[in-house]
Amino acid sequence: MDSENKAANNGNKILIVISMVMGVLIGLMFGSHQGDKPSYEHGSLQGKMSEVLDLVERQYVDSVDADSLSERLVGVMLGELDPHSTYLTARETERTAEMMRGNFEGVGLVLRREGDTTYIGQVLSDGPSAGSGLMPGDLILNVDGVRVSGVQMPADSVVARLRGPRRSKVKIEILRQGDKSMEFTIRRGVVTHKSLVYSDMLDDTTGYIMLSTFSSTSHDEFHNALNTLVKRGMKHLIFDLRGNTGGSLESAVGIANEMLPANSLIVYTQGAHQRRNNVYARRGGLFTQGRVTVMVDEGSASASEVVSGALQDNDRATIVGRRTFGKGLVQREFELGDGSSVLLTIARYYTPSGRSIQRPYSEGTDEYYRDYLNQLMEESYADNPTLHVTDSTPYHTVGGRVVYGGGGIFPDHLIPYRKDPTFVYYNKLSSKGILSRVAFEEVRQHAEQWLQRYPTADDFCRHFKLGDNVISRVVKLGEKEDIPVDNKGLSAQSRLMTTMVKAFIGDFLYGQQVFYRIYLPEDEDLKQTRAIK
Predict the structure, then answer these.
(1) pLDDT 10s digit of each residue in the chain, 533 long?
(2) Nearest-CA neighbor of 182 among 137, 148, 133, 147?
(3) Any idea which fold 103-192 has?
(4) Fewer beta carbons within 10 angstroms: which end of the chain, N or C?
């Protein structure tokens, strides 16, 4: 996340700023200016800050880029408060708004960059470009006559040229494999970004929903998927929040409400300037009786922890996986005059039992993230991982079970990291994007004929088979990236590699639903979750 990367750098910036301030103070002791001083209310945060900034503007030896300096200073100041209060530029504010509302105005293409070349990675089935003739694998040459490939144009600039007000038009010139260039005119429209990436029945009674983030549309998406699964006979829901870093607290509350009996406490928030606010489940939840299992991992944070904590404390769900991130701070966005904004922590949230799951940050932002990485390393290498508790206070669920806070949500059933050494070779290939790159090269060469042969996603899933040479191409590309072949690992994981290449091809051609439909039967964590009784 951009905000987390910024926060992680603040510690080094603060050291530099402290050194600068000390130098200024020593200089003033020997030669302070005795002219008129502006009047400020001393003892307030605004007082001293305003006084120093006024001195810089009136007395500093060189001219100052006020916008750039103020952005850096605001970022450093917020980083001193906590790891999650942060400053967003106007562009970052716009992106955050798009993510939260779940839509933007554009052409409905997912782009894929390779070097300085821009390709179409996916044509969204419900976007403005659907049915236009554009295909995954097409190389984008020009947008409205401006060259965008082979000219070192930043990816953001390409995206900006494709986006624009709905009903406006954009001309896209592409180069297709084995063809001359072609030009398409697309009328822009609203492009939805769904946070619910997959839902389906895993068997006659077990439903599955995966949510990637909590946007303003997430509750509606979850409600609709839940309703469909209930009508199909679902008695057991597996709710997958792995890697979900959070988002809208309101959506988290709405989703928890669908699974909790009326009047159950979902969460409460409280801060120095915020009185305690209890949030209770209302009547009308769609799935308040059946069995619920929630999958989490070290990437599950914030709103994901609100939902999993509420279900755990109310003894409504079994939490399965690995300890979550541990972000129990609530941010509110305050827009500034130039379109930028501040995400300011205004409260802490607490699970129904009274737990704060926020990990300690009193030692500063750098130590906060360093401790998180150390936790991951310790838990991944341990033969029998134990989840160390930073807050030893016992809290109790409604049924009397003891739970702990102070460092994420602790799963009821731990799924440790896999220790099988044959996965090492696979993980190296995966981390370098080798499987995805081979899949995309296949799509570049064959997208048109495959879309004709397999007109629906169901046709593709049932009948598509990879050529015999695909795995050898994976191995060769891996060797080019300094990943020597491990024959034992290759033999053990060739089925998984083949499945993943097919899943990526399905993703490029038909979307994420197809990716997960193909991949999930091979998901070892999901297999272990389903085995829990």
Answers:
(1) 443 343 334 444 333 333 333 333 333 334 434 444 455 555 566 777 778 878 888 888 888 887 788 888 888 888 888 999 989 888 888 888 887 888 889 999 999 999 899 999 999 999 999 999 999 999 999 999 999 999 989 988 999 999 999 999 999 999 998 777 999 999 999 998 899 999 999 999 999 999 999 999 999 999 999 999 999 999 999 999 999 999 999 999 999 999 999 999 999 999 998 899 999 999 999 999 999 999 999 999 999 999 999 999 999 999 999 999 999 999 999 998 889 899 899 999 999 999 999 988 888 888 888 888 888 887 777 666 555 666 678 999 999 999 988 889 999 999 988 888 899 999 999 999 999 999 999 999 999 999 999 999 999 999 999 988 999 999 999 999 999 999 999 999 999 999 999 999 999 999 999 999 999 999 999 999 999 98
(2) 133
(3) Pdz3 Domain (2.30.42)
(4) C
Query: 268 - beta bridge partners?
Result: 278, 350
What are the structural domain ranges in the chain? Answer: 2-31+40-81, 103-192, 196-329+347-414, 423-531
Report, at the CATH architecture level, how domain 196-329+347-414 is classified.
Alpha-Beta Complex (3.90)
Residue (of 118, 100, 117) closest to 109 by Cα position: 118
Q: Helix, strand, or coil here: 319?
A: strand
**Catalytic residue ranges:** 302, 313, 327
pTM (two decimals): 0.86
Half-sphere exposure of 321 (CA within 13 A, CB side): 26
Phi and psi at 396, nearest 5°, equal -125, 135
